[in-house]
Amino acid sequence: MDQSFRAFLDGNRVSDDQQTKEQTTMMPQSEQKDLHLFTMSTPNGRKIQIALEELKLIYNEISFSYELIDITSNQQKSEEFLKLNPNGMYRLHFLTMIPRKYASRHGRVPALIDNKCKALNNPSAPFAVMESAAILLYLAKKVDKNHVFGFEDDLERSEALQWLFFGMAGIGPMQGQLNHFTRYAPEKLPYAMKRYHEETLRLYGVLEIQLSGKYTGVKKKYLAGKGEGKYSWADMAIWPWVNIYTISGISEDELNQFPCLKEWHKIVSERPGVKEGCSSKYNLKKN
Question: Which spans does this entry mark as compositional bias, Polar residues (predicted)?
């Protein structure tokens, strides 16, 4: 169980009064490193936290700073942040049946700034990247020149991208909805909870098929690559979601149905870069 993420969830239930708090100022660009990450320690944020920590262990020259976004102060809704990631805007809560305090609670992080590159249409601003998969691919191109976490072979690269997008289009949205209806929905909706619970388990089953080598005869240590595979961006993208399975309401007995997935989760969990990317330094300190 990921206690730090559970504490984050329980500590960030935002009321209507909290939503009117004054937005805080972000770190001045002069204090930022070449790469600057806006994050909070959620699965999507942890993808990039882990990626940067992994890269730092390989490439000594990498320089990055990070800034923890306090969603209770609406920092991610400020004009300053929206210039970097317009997907931080409030949802149109009046078009839904969900009360505003639930509909607009979360912003959209992570976002990454590359202070060594200029924005395409604003040379006075740095280049910004939103969406966690896009950030991973940006880091793969700009930093991982030796393909330590990627592949030079086109077919291996394609396989890694397939699983990366599987995580983005499947695991993330489905388990994210499971989290919402299990933990945050203003009323318990058994159909929604059952639907997203079963779909998350189905997707875990797909991962089990890949890792077990059920149809290839080759058991894999990691999701992509020839033979047992190699630790890659695909693993970084999916592991943070599987890591919070208990928070999503998936029991230990249910996870035991996927022994190869469970083994993969343990192997990735033991990596120094993963441990550092999930460490307490990325936890927002409450006053």
Answer: 21-30
| Cβ atoms within 10 Å, residue 273 | 21
- Domain 154-274 CATH assignment equals 1.20.1050.10: yes
Give CATH for domain 3-149: 3.40.30.10
Alpha carbon distance 234, 206 (integer Å): 14
- Specify the 3-state DSSP secondary structure of 125: strand
Q: Per the omega criterion (within 30 degrees of 0), is the bond before 126 cis?
A: no
- The span from the CA of 65 to the CA of 28, in Å, is 12
- What type of residue sits at position 237? A
Strand, coil or helix: 128: strand
CA atoms lying within 13 Å on the CB side of residue 265:
20
pLDDT (tens place) for every residue of the chain, 287 residues total: 465 555 444 444 433 333 333 345 678 777 899 999 999 989 999 999 999 999 999 999 999 999 998 766 656 556 666 777 777 655 544 344 444 444 444 447 899 999 999 999 989 899 999 999 999 999 999 999 999 999 999 999 999 999 999 999 999 999 999 999 999 899 999 999 999 999 999 999 999 999 999 999 999 999 999 999 999 999 999 999 999 999 999 999 999 999 999 999 999 999 999 999 999 999 987 65
Give the residue extent of every domain in the chain: 3-149, 154-274
Q: Residue 64's beta-bridge partner residues?
A: 35
Give dist(CA 196, CA 199) in Å, integer.
5
Measured CA distances, 4 to 43, 62, 159, 203, 280 (Å): 12, 27, 32, 25, 8
Place of tokens 């700073």: 65
Q: Compute CA 227 distance to the chain's CA centroid, rounded to the nearest angstrom.
A: 27
* Residue in 219, 220, 214, 223 with CA at minimum distance from that of residue 242: 223
